[in-house]
């Protein structure tokens, strides 16, 4: 599975994306604000309730963005979009591997790390990009990073870390649980760094195989089964062939999904504790009042909706993510925000706070929304997906447009989808052929033509899974 979405009324959009000089964003403008981004892997937007430190330290003091999305719901494309503020059609990274994806397809010469390089000490701690395994195992460190603690290949235990070019092995002891090891590294970085810092903390959790730490394996023992209206959807006749051909989930498959969901929740607990440790280190070093902390995920996850498990498509469960931003100088009290925010908004936000440019960024700085909940914002956005399997992809290549009410998915090989999300939030009724929505469809098709430019590659080659 794989895939994606993005943006605004197009003429006004380009003006909105320009990064403006910061407007005295720090107390007395005495120092540049620190930037800390905590990025989980495959975490759904509706799971923050299970993370008490995130609730206490971030939600209760920041802005919770209830409608946050990724513009390509696969790991590597999403992470390159976070680093650059760009869509896949600009990064060139559409997939996790192959000629259109993975580590070697990404040009790391212009990212948050390089933009902040002059005035900041930067660190990535955790997972970088898919297919980094060979480079990471040989000590390669991407451009712009002062401190580098990255998995060549992410695991919960029995893993290696490339630490500033030297590879160190870790085992399967309790003390070697990777989320905890990474948290210790993050705390040490905060404690040992002088001046402004930029930290990107990226644990593996709660990605498959969602391996909980021993002490967390009994958590959430009363978690009810997940059975929303679109779970194991009975009638998929209105869906395109790639979706409707999926058989109903068997009892064994449903049990597997239930166990996987529970394990995902359990693996979030060490991440939550890591958030607490990072927060405490910022407070102890006197940085908390001048730090923007972002908590988010690289994509969502389906737990049986539409008979599916996974991500990489345009359904809500795949593209929606949690996003919370705490920045005390701009946010006096906690609040929620329902504007559509995107993973490509993070890079220009960090750049504006740091007072540097964000060359090529296509997202919007979140600073206006942090300052003013009524600030003018986008009305629509794009999601992209490239499938090397051509019409046989799962799903095939598409560009999708989402507004606050509608979602239109234009598959390169036909059989499109259209949903009224206000009337049908679970996307159970595809109205692509409904005459009542023909005018709305025409508008969405026009937006797609403007935003999906250039469109994803039109190729029929295949790559081996990895």
Description:
The protein is an alpha/beta fold and 466 residues long. It has one domain (32-366): Alkaline Phosphatase, subunit A (3-Layer(aba) Sandwich), CATH 3.40.720.10. 27% of the residues lie in helices and 19% in strands. It contains 13 helices and 18 strands. It has helices at 10-17, 52-59, 75-84, 88-91, 112-115, 133-137, 178-192, 241-244, 251-284, 316-319, 346-354, 367-371, 438-451, and strands at residues 5-7, 34-40, 63-69, 121-126, 147-150, 160-163, 166-169, 197-202, 291-297, 302-303, 309-310, 320-321, 323-326, 335-342, 380-385, 398-403, 406-411, 417-420. The strands form three sheets. Strands 2, 3, 4, 5, 6, 7, 8, 9, 12, 13 and 14 form an eleven-stranded mixed sheet that branches. The chain has a five-stranded antiparallel sheet with strand order 1-15-16-17-18, with helices on one face. A two-stranded antiparallel sheet has the order 10-11. Strand 17 (406-411) and strand 18 form a beta hairpin. Helix 2 (52-59) crosses helix 9 and helix 7 runs parallel beside helix 9 (251-284). The chain is globular and about 60 Å long. It starts with a strand and ends in a 15-residue tail after the last helix.
């Amino acid at each position: 599975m794989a895939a994606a979405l993005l943006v605004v009324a197009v003429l006004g959009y380009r003006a909105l994306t320009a990064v403006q000089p910061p407007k005295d964003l720090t107390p007395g403008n005495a120092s540049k604000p620190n930037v800390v981004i905590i990025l989980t892997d495959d975490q759904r937007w509706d799971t923050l309730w299970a993370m008490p430190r995130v609730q206490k330290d971030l939600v209760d003091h920041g802005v919770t963005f209830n409608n946050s999305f990724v513009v390509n719901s696969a790991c590597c494309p999403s992470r390159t979009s976070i680093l650059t503020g760009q869509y896949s059609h600009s990064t060139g990274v559409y997939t996790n591997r192959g000629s259109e994806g993975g580590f070697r397809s990404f040009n790391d010469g212009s990212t948050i790390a390089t933009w902040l390089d002059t005035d900041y000490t930067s660190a990535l701690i955790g997972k970088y990009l898919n297919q980094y395994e060979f480079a990471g195992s040989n000590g390669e460190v991407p451009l712009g990073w002062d401190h580098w603690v990255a998995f060549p290949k992410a695991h919960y235990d029995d893993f290696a870390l490339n630490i500033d070019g030297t590879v160190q092995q870790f085992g399967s002891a309790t003390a070697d649980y990777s989320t905890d090891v990474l948290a210790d590294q993050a705390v040490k970085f905060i404690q040992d760094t002088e001046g402004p810092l930029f930290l990107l903390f990226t644990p593996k959790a709660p990605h498959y195989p969602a391996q909980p730490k021993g002490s967390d394996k009994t958590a959430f023992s009363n978690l009810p089964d997940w059975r929303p209206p679109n779970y194991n959807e009975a009638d998929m006749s209105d869906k395109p062939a790639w979706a409707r051909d999926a058989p109903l989930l068997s009892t064994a498959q449903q049990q597997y999904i239930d166990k996987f969901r529970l394990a995902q929740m359990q693996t979030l607990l060490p991440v939550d504790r890591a958030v607490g440790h990072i927060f405490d280190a910022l407070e102890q070093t006197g940085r908390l009042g001048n730090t923007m902390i972002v908590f988010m995920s690289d994509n969502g996850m389906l737990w049986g909706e539409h008979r599916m498990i996974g991500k990489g498509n345009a359904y809500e469960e795949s593209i929606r993510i949690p996003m919370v931003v705490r920045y005390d100088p701009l946010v006096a009290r906690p609040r929620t925000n329902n504007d559509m925010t995107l993973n490509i908004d993070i890079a220009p936000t960090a750049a504006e706070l740091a007072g540097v440019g964000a060359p090529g960024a296509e997202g919007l700085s979140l600073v206006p929304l942090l300052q003013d909940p009524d600030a003018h914002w986008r009305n629509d956005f794009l999601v992209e997906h490239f499938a090397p399997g051509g019409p046989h992809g799962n799903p095939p290549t598409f560009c999708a447009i989402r507004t606050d009410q509608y979602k239109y998915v234009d598959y390169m090989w036909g059989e499109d989808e259209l949903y009224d999300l206000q009337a049908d939030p679970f996307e159970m009724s595809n109205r692509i052929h409904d005459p009542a929505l023909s005018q709305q469809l025409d508008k969405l098709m026009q937006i797609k033509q403007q935003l999906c430019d250039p469109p994803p590659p039109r190729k029929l080659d295949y790559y081996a899974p990895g």
